[in-house]
Amino acid sequence: MTDPLLAEVRRARTTDVPGIRALVDTFTGDRRLLAKAMVNLYEDVQEFFVAVDGSEVVGCGALHVLWEDLAEVRTLAVAPTAQGQGVGSALLHRLIENARELGVHRLFCLTFETDFFGRHGFVPVDEVALDVDVRAELLQSPDEGVAEFLDLARVKPNTLGNTRMLAQL
Question: The pTM is what?
Answer without folding.
Answer: 0.86
